[in-house]
């Protein structure tokens, strides 16, 4: 075990173009001002401002390709830390008093992006705001890691409830199926702007196309195609707010075949054409 892996630490930085690959410990990744992309053992991930990525210990790559500075705030947890916190939440008081320093094996989480809850957001904001002062306050520094790990562990309960909605008698089978469908979902979130095909997404998830469709709809309440359309329309609204992007540029940047198909699909989802939407946004700003 390296010295770094035996320590909780924070990486707080700004970058517009960056690439890194190597081994990391259990961590959460948060960003503001843009998007970062990760490739890990279990898939591809895009991390935006309203979500965080939870990665287990192991190899991964990070790529940032932004025109403006992207702020990262990433927390790395020492080996056994999550297990230690979980033990304090699940063991009886008698057991904790008898053996308070018993080592626990490292926990394995579901690697994926998660919505940043209000509670976690406030904890991260407080940690970030006081980071300079905490450099000289090791006790306060460590307490932030404990609070944030508590929140992450409680958040996993929601994930386990999702796992239990999947059809299988064995818990291990449900968890494996969840991981595979989640891999497909994260890939869609990361590459919705590219021309994706069902067979390719299914292959990435190691599921048959039909099995993926059925389970994806059961888990997320929608189909992969519908999710891709939702992500494209959501991104299109943000780009239409920027006058330096033409309708044609937005069409091709988001994977639409042509401005005509973009306009048609946008109208179906929003009720107005992209050009009409842009005019309404401009009027609201005046």
From TrEMBL:
The GO terms this record gives for MF are: DNA-binding transcription factor activity; sequence-specific DNA binding
* Domain HTH araC/xylS-type stretches: 182-280
Q: Which residues form a coiled coil?
A: none
Record-given protein name: HTH araC/xylS-type domain-containing protein
Query: Per UniProt, what is one Pfam family of this protein?
Result: HTH_18
Q: Which InterPro entries match?
A: Homeodomain-like_sf, HTH_AraC, HTH_AraC-typ_CS, Tscrpt_reg_AraC-type_HTH
User: Which keywords does this Swiss-Prot/TrEMBL entry list?
Assistant: DNA-binding, Transcription, Transcription regulation
């Amino acid at each position: 075990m390296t010295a770094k892996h035996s320590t909780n630490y924070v990486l707080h930085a700004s970058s517009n173009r960056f690439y890194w690959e190597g081994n990391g410990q259990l961590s959460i990744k948060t960003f503001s001002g843009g998007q970062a992309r990760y490739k890990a053992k279990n898939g591809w991930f895009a991390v935006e401002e309203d979500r965080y990525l939870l990665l287990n210990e192991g190899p991964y790559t990070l790529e940032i390709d932004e025109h403006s500075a992207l702020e990262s705030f990433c927390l790395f947890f020492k080996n056994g830390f999550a297990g230690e916190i979980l033990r304090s939440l699940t063991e009886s008081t008698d057991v904790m008093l008898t053996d308070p320093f018993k080592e626990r094996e490292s926990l394995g989480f579901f690697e994926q992006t998660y919505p940043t809850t209000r509670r976690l957001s406030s904890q991260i904001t407080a940690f970030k705001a006081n980071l300079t002062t905490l450099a000289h306050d090791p006790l306060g520094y460590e307490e932030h890691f404990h609070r944030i790990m508590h929140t992450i562990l409680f958040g996993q309960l929601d994930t386990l409830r999702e796992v239990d909605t999947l059809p299988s008698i064995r818990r291990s089978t449900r968890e494996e199926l969840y991981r595979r469908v989640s891999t497909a979902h994260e890939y869609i979130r990361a590459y919705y702007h590219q021309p994706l095909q069902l067979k390719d997404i299914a292959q990435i998830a190691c599921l048959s196309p039909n099995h993926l469709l059925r389970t994806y709809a059961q888990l997320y309440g929608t189909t992969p195609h519908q999710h891709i359309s939702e992500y494209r329309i959501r991104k299109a609204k943000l780009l239409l707010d920027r006058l330096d992007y033409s309708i044609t540029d937005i069409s091709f940047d988001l994977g639409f075949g042509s401005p005509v198909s973009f306009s048609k699909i946008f109208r179906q989802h929003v009720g107005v054409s992209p050009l009409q939407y842009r005019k309404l946004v401009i009027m609201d700003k005046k």
